Every structure is written in structure tokens, then in C-alpha cells.
Amino acid sequence: MNAEENSTCPKCGALVSQSDKFCKNCGTDLTRPPEAIQASPPPASPAEHYDRKFSTFQRLFRILISPSEIMRDIGYAPEYEGFFSIAIAEFAVSIVTVMLILGKIHVVGEQAGSVNDIVQSVMAFSIILVIGLFIVKWLVKSWIVKSVCDGGGWWDFRTAAAITGYAYIADFVIGVLSTVLIWFLVPSFTIDTANLDAARQAMSNYQTQLRWLKLMYTLPATLLGLVWKSYLGGLGCHFGTKERFSVGTGFVLFFVLGLFSLLLSLFT
User: Fold this and answer.
1) For residues 240 and 73, what is the distance between their CA atoms, to the nearest angstrom?
2) Could you tell me which residues are beta bridge partners of residue 7?
3) Mean pLDDT throughout 134-152?
4) CA torsion, points 225, 226, 232, 234, in degrees to nearest 10?
5) What confidence tier does 89 reach under pLDDT thresholds 50, 70, 90?
6) What is the pLDDT averaged over residues 204-231?
7) Who is most buried in 60, 82, 208, 232, counting CB within 10 A?
8) CA-CA distance, 245 to 253, in Å (whole number)?
9) pLDDT per residue over 20-68, tens digit each?
10) Could you tell me if 134 and 206 lie in one domain?
11) Which domain does 8 fall in, by range?
């Protein structure tokens, strides 16, 4: 075989003879036109390795001042510690809020002890119920976010749950502000167990005052928190899907879910 009769395989580049019908190296059919034979695809590159940059505490703190940087770190290195830290903080704020509310309510009369016991029991049950619903809401919302943003196996539930969990930092901050508002703005209320009719009327008036406070102060703060949480969620969806999902679309998704939850709480 002389040099003029030799050529190279258009697929693997091995030396072949012009009389060969198949490449002895890769088995390519040499009778086909060279342009019809695609070159071998490059070997698949290993999955991108990412080293986590911030601890859970750093994430919780720096997300307030550098949300894009932190949500990228969470999207590429997800964990659940952040959410449970926020949940514990929410639990603590709820206890403080209930204590402040109880401090605003004064029960007098012969049945004061019994009424106080009932009120405290109801408040304690409410806290447990709220925390339980908080966790359930997180799981359901994480599943929805994962399903909607997963256009082709871009991420997993762990990543979606971590992003959704960290976005709740906005609710925590708003909760702290609401507790401060309760301390300064919620009026004191006295229940006289000796006159039940007067107590019912006083309770009705008190509830009206609370509704106005909620409308004037709490609701705007909650909407502001919703916008903030949606922005964090949008960033998380973007980085969690390795930048395949846009920040704007993620924002809309979180905002719609949060608005639905807000409306549900207002009318139930």
C-alpha cells in the first residue's frame, strides 16, 4: 500500500486504505460521503464542581445586603439548615408577639383566672398550628416551584426547597416589624367577666380597631415583604436551574403563590 492509496477516516482520523469499506479503528462505513459522516462527539465533561462559599449564618446575614451573591451560592450548594433556622426564629417571634398581645389584654372579675387560662391555651395552640402550617406550606410551595421551573431536569427538589426556604427571610423581617407595631400601636383591652354583654361589645370594638391597624400598617408591610420574597425567589430559581430560568419569571411565580396565600389568610 503506497501513500497515494492511503487516506484518513473522516470520523476518527485513523489511517485507512482507499480500498477499505470500513474503518478498522472505529468501524465507520467509508463508502458513505465524508460530509455524511459526523465526527465523533467530544467526551462528556464531568459535572461542574462548585465549592460552597458561605456558611448558613453568613447566608442568613448577607442575603439582606447581597441577595444575588447569596442566592447563587444557595442555588449551587443547597441545604435545609437555613430554612429551619428561619423557622425557629419565626417561632420565637410568634411567642414574643403572643406575649405582647396577652400583655395588652386585661381580664378582671370573678372568672378572670379561668378566662386567662383559656386565652393562653388558645394562643399556645395557635402558635403550634401556625408553625405546623408554616412547614407544610414550605413543602407544598417548594414542590410547585420545582415542578413549574423544571423544564428539562434542570434541578431537584432539594434545591427548590432550599431556595424557597431562604426566601422566607423576608417574612421573618416583616414579622419582627409587625411585633414592634403591636407594641406601640395595638391598644390595651379590658375584659370584665362580671358583665358578659359589655365584654362582647368591647371585644367587637377591639376587633374593629385591630382590622383597621391591619389594613393601614400590617397589610402594606406584608405586600412589601411579598415583593422582597418574590425577588429572592426569582434569583433562586435563576441560579438553582443553572441560569436556565429567568429571574423575572421566577419573581412572577413566587409573587402569585404568595398573593394567593395572603388572600387565603385574609378571608379565612
Assistant:
1) 9
2) 16
3) 89
4) -160
5) very high
6) 82
7) 232
8) 11
9) 777 777 767 777 766 555 544 444 444 467 889 999 999 999 999 999 9
10) yes
11) 3-31
Instruction: Note whether 141 and 257 are within 8 A (CB).
Output: yes
Q: What cell does 195 get?
A: 358583665
Residue 82: pLDDT band (50, 70, 90) is: very high
Give the total number of structural domains in the chain: 2
Amino acid 82 reads G
Question: Is the residue at 162 inside a domain?
Answer: yes
Is residue 42 assigned to a domain? no
Would you tell me how many other CB atoms lie within 10 Å of the CB of residue 7?
14
This model's pTM is above 0.85:
no
For the chain, the C-alpha Rg in angstroms (whole number) is 31
The owner of cell 438553582 is: 240
Query: What is d(CA 22, CA 37) in angstroms, rounded to the nearest whole number?
Result: 12
71 and 13, same domain (yes or no): no
Specify whether 132 is located in the same domain as 88: yes
Residues 99, 17: one domain?
no
Say yes or no: 26 and 62 in one domain.
Answer: no
8 Å CB contact between 249 and 237: yes
Shared domain for 17 and 94, answered yes or no, is: no
DSSP code string of the chain: --GGGEEE-TTT--EEETT-SB-TTT--BTTS-GGGSPPPPPPPPPPPP----S-HHHHHHHTTT-HHHHHHHHHHS--SHHHHHHHHHHHHHHHHHHHHHHHHEEEESTTHHHHHHHHHHHHHHHHHHHHHHHHHHHHHHHHHHHHHH-SSS---HHHHHHHHHHHTHHHHHHHHHHHHHHHHHSPPEEEETT-HHHHHHHHHHHHHHHHHHIIIIIHHHHHHHHHHHHHHHHHHHHHHTTT-S-HHHHHHHHHHHHHHHHHHHH--
